[in-house]
TrEMBL record:
This is Class I SAM-dependent methyltransferase. The keyword Nuclease does not apply. Residues 52-134 form the Methyltransferase type domain. One of its GO terms (biological process) is methylation. Pfam families: Methyltransf_11 (PF08241). The lineage of its organism: Bacteria, Bacillati, Actinomycetota, Actinomycetes, Micrococcales.
Length: 245
C-alpha cells in the first residue's frame, strides 16, 4: 500500500463532481439494495410520455436507461454537475434546468429521484399529472454514521433524520398516495485512506467542515487500521418510495 501522504494527496486532487464513483473501484465496496433501482427506473421511463428526474447530479444514473420518454427533463442546482449533465444527456434530447419553479403544473407522467437531499413533496405533487407516479430511492436514517461519527463524535439528533415514516407522512400531507415503501441496511467497506478522503469530499454533508488538516489524527487512525488488513466498515441505509398523485 502506498504511503498515507501519497494516498491523501491523490484523493484531495481527484475530481468529485457528478455522481461517478468509479474512483472507489477496488478501494471501497457497498452492497446494492435488492430492488435494483436502475432497472426499475429504466422500466418506468419506457412506459411514459414525459418524466422529470430531480437532483440528477451529472446524469450518470439516468443515462443508464436505454430509452427516454419523448419529453425528459432533469433538475440540478449545482453548476458543475449541471454542466456535466448537459454534456452527457443533452445529446439524448434531455432538458437540464436548475429547479422546478418554472415547470408548469401537472406536466409530467413520472417524477423520479435517486438520493434527493430533501424531497420537495409539494412541488412533486404540483408537477405530476393526475394519476402520475413518483419513484425514488432515498438515503435513510443514520446512513454511514459509523464513519461520520469517527470524525464528529456521537450525533444522536442527526441519527433521527431521514426517517422513511416521516417522508411517507410528508408525501401524503402534500396530497400524494404512497403505494410502496421498502427499506434496506447495506454494508460498506473502505480499504485505504484515500477512499475515505475522497468520499468525504464527494459527500460534503457527511462531515461538513472536513479537511485533511483538521481531521488528520482521525484519518491516521483509520489508515493504521486498514494497513493491518482491517477494512473500515459502515452501513448505508436506503429506502424505495413509490407514490401516486
Amino acid at each position: 500500500m502506498r504511503s498515507f501522504e501519497e494516498l491523501v494527496a491523490e484523493a484531495v486532487s481527484a475530481d468529485v463532481t457528478g455522481w461517478d464513483f468509479s474512483y472507489l473501484d477496488g478501494r471501497a465496496t457497498e452492497e446494492r439494495p435488492p430492488w435494483r433501482y436502475v432497472r426499475l427506473l429504466a422500466e418506468r421511463l419506457a412506459t411514459v410520455g414525459s418524466a422529470l428526474d430531480l437532483d440528477t447530479g451529472g446524469g450518470e444514473v439516468l443515462d443508464e436507461s436505454p430509452a427516454f420518454p419523448s419529453r425528459m427533463v432533469v433538475t440540478e442546482a449545482y453548476a458543475p454537475n449541471a454542466a456535466r449533465a448537459r454534456a452527457r444527456l443533452g445529446p439524448r434530447g434531455v432538458e437540464v434546468v436548475a429547479g422546478t419553479e418554472d415547470l408548469p403544473d401537472a406536466s409530467f407522467d413520472l417524477v423520479t429521484s435517486r438520493h434527493p437531499v430533501d424531497p420537495a413533496w409539494v412541488e412533486i405533487h404540483r408537477v405530476l399529472r393526475p394519476g402520475g407516479r413518483y419513484l425514488g430511492q432515498h438515503v435513510g436514517p443514520a446512513s454511514a454514521f459509523e464513519l461520520i461519527e469517527h470524525f464528529l463524535g456521537p450525533q444522536p439528533e442527526a441519527r433521527r433524520g431521514r426517517d422513511p415514516r416521516g417522508e411517507v407522512a410528508d408525501a401524503e400531507a402534500a396530497g400524494l398516495t404512497v403505494t410502496d415503501l421498502r427499506t434496506a441496511r447495506l454494508r460498506m467497506e473502505f480499504f485505504d485512506v484515500g477512499a475515505v478522503v475522497w468520499i468525504l469530499r464527494a459527500c460534503v454533508w457527511w462531515v461538513p467542515d472536513f479537511s485533511v488538516e483538521r481531521y488528520e489524527p482521525q484519518l491516521r487512525s483509520l489508515d493504521a487500521r486498514m494497513r493491518r488488513g482491517e477494512p473500515v466498515v459502515a452501513h448505508s441505509t436506503r429506502h424505495l418510495l413509490q407514490a401516486r398523485r
